[in-house]
Amino acid sequence: MTVSAPVFDIQRFTLHDGPGIRTLVFLKGCALHCPWCQNPESQDHRPVIAFYRERCVERFDCRGVCPEDAIRSEGFRVDQGKCTVCGLCVEACASGALRLVGEAHTPEELMEKVRADLPYYESSGGGVTFTGGEPTLHPHFLGRVIEMCAAESIHTNLETAGVFSLEKWAEILEKLDLIYFDLKIMDAEQHERELGASFDTIQKNATALVELGLPVEFRMPVIPDYTDTQDNIERVAAFLRKLGQTGIHLLAYHNMGEAKIDIISGAQPRLGRARLSDERLAEVRDEFRRRGIEILNP
Amino acid sequence: MSSEPATVIPWKPSARIQRLYEDHSRATPSIGAERALHYTEFYKRLASPDASPLLLNAQSLAHHLDHRSIRIHDDELIVGSHTEHRVGAICHVEKAGSAMLEDVFHFETREVNPLAVAKGVKWKLLREVAPYWLGRSLPMRAFSLRKKVEYAAEQLTAAHFVINEVAGVAHFLPDYGGLVELGTNGLREKVEARLAAGELPEDGRDFLAACLLCIDAVERFSDRYRDEARRIGRDDIAEVLEWVPRNPPRSLREALQLIWFFQLIIQIESIDQGISLGRMDQYLYPIYLEQKRRGEVDDDEARELFAAFCIKLSEVIPMFSARATEYFAGLPSGQALTIGGIDEAGRCASNELTGLLLDVMEGFKTRQPNWHARISKASVPDYLRRVVSVVAGGGGSPALYNDDVIMPAMVERHVAKEKVWNYATVGCVEPALSRESFTSSDAAIFNLAIALEWLFAGEKRMAQGKTCRRPWLSDLTSMDQLIDRLEAQTRGRLLHMKGSLDAIEQSGAKYFPTPLSSLTIGGCIENATDSTRGGAWYNASGIQAVGIADLANSLAVVDELVFERELCSLEEIANACAANFEGEDLLLARARKIAAFGNDDARVDALANRVALLFDRCVSSLTNTRGGEYMPGFYSMTCHQGFGRKMAAMPSGRLAGAPLADGLAPVDGSDLLGPTASLNSVARLDHTRFANGINLNIKFDAATVEGAEGRAALEALVRGYFAQGGMQVQINVLDPDVLEEAMRDPDSHRNLLVRISGYCAYFVDLTPAMQRELIDRTRQRAR
Fold it and tell me: For residue B98, is it within any domain?
């Protein structure tokens, strides 16, 4: 049986998602819906047609090929109610205004793309990082890919929000070289309310990973008024200390994800906040340091 | 990755050197007319009508050196100027210089690279100089009248090629390693011994006699500076000049003074293009060590001397007309200086001098030299790390060269395996064997991309806007046929160009040999033959192809739309190109959607390799007039703009008049998957065939490469690219001005990667506000 998964982007030469020069593989689908999401197109696990309005030359070659009559003249080009994401319009679109987000890849297809930068993984100590969305939503697919990477000595990193079934994942996790585990809101009630998922699983998984001795490092996105409150910082620090962790990666909030909502005509809310200032980030870093937690990213 | 060395504060030159540099910078670049006037005077009045051109060239050089105005400037450590002005351009009247006089009334007022011309000099040049050389200069002597007209027309429009040799061959590595071992006394002995040995070829006696005249002239020139130094109370300079040029130098200062005299006089004799300094950290090392052992030099003093030397190199400016500037912008004189590499035993050759030169490169940025660093698998980590940190500091220096590709490429071109470790670079990017080669490495620059336009239009230039039947395209039904046709046509165009090249080489060799230059090239004295006549041991020539990426992208479009998907005919594509894609929106959009060279796409990369190898086959089948082979190079100076401006649209979607791609790089803004994908595409070409060198420019914003992490990534990129067979790369770290430009013109900067807090993004993908912010941040950092 061939398993496949929707990959909505592959970025090469990334330097900040693990050691060395890395290829970042973005898998579509997420268990959370954080209001600050930087990749809103990742949340739904289904592929979708994106529309880049400024590239459109309005020749409507898309309309001629669409079997569902889903092409509209005004507003967002694709009627998502009718669209079955067959991709014919994307092929017909000469200008590249229509793009398929979340093309299905088999493990072999993905590996071929990952291997392209092998010389740079070798020269830099880099490798591949799986992110999303929530990559753990694709255990069969990713299990196979991680196995292949291990066999070819390609360094692997998994970025997860921690919502997964440990039973399904324990065996796969053991093959990883690195796991980036995101902590966001520590208050269980607020977590469930804002992010749409229970914090319980996340907490249990985090603890289990550390107890299993897996190479896990924790990260926290610094979101104004959501994660950067005194209370939340205190609770993250306490949780880390309890797990015997001494460091954290801090990711500064930026609002560039919001522009992508329009491209997929998404219904996500917009936080409407400015990028986190360098000054505020420095303060938060100090807050952690004061609590005995060092900052792992420069 | 490896641990970060302690932060090093970049070396800064002393107040003296800074003053020297400021004075140098304030000097107005001017036309130095004295050489033109002296040479004309000599040939008009003093030349013996039946003397051999070898002697005439030595005598004219001597006449000029004996009469040139000389001056020693405040704070100078090394003396001698390229012209009578502090920063000046020479008019080599007997070669292409008289053609550059087309601009004599515009030099001062033109926008790009203005040159001052002293009062009275303009008319003198026009009345006395230009008319005399009208029928006597190198290009005029090279051709019959009919060929002259054709040649002039071709050079003036320059769509297919530019022949650089018309200005003189230049572009070689004088054997300065040998020079510092001998001094002029040793050179004289060598020449006299050869004379005494007899069995001289035709003209051998004249050649050797001319060599002796040149040596005498150099010594007299130096003595004039010595006397001037005494007169103005600079005994330190006078003492240096009591010893050199006659004796082998005992100190770095003496060595650099000796080398500079030769460097400057060779550029007066030949031309000021690509006279390169070779492996200075290697051949000066014994002198430095000995001096250090005697406790006579400290490293700071050595850096000061190198800095003073760099100022001297920067005084040399080429005299290009506005027309030439379009093809060679930015006042290039191509004095390459090579560091690093390996030694005879294959070990890393970097030494203390390498480090000192890197300090100067980093802390004291001057227009010249062209800094080139050789990198090998054997390079020690410290050397590579230091080189990369200098690169990350910006300014594009040094450019990096891969020994592990260049050496095998040279061996394939018959350079002896046991000598190849000692190669150095010439001019822009060209590898050549130190000590004994006379490589006309920049003989000509050839527009390969125009092949398609030539084919579409039926062996002529494309008539713009003209839709017509093109029956000669109808029998091309596969990519193989199309490429075969392009190869035959390219061969024909190259042969046509070579006809002119041969005539120019023969005219140069016959009328304007270069005995002084020849003295510094292994083989010339031994063979008692001038370098222009084949005296050197190695005699290769280089022809550069421009437009590989554009041609490959165009072929990929034709392959997919015509041969594969059969969406249109070749004739329709040709007509769309003629129409500059007007009314052809769909075709244009389709063309631009097809993966371009630089995206790690196997099809278009393979096509790029095919066209590069096609050019290699055509060029490598030719032999120059000195018996050397031709080798292909892939760099463009700024010819990609000059050629591009004259061309119609191409199937790739490149519009009429747009620049072609720079060197071996992807088309600007077409590589969308980041630097690793782009480097993979470039490395997919067979660089071992590109023996005359390549140029690959890549750009980063300052933030991407800053800090230990950024530098480690940069180093890893270079190592990954070199491990895959990349020959050369030049890394530009961008200043905020480029980001401003990207804001105004996003389409040409689609591949510009910038670092935002914590990650990299394409600059053009950012919101205007974010772009603004980044520019402001970069500006702050630059301050």
Answer: yes
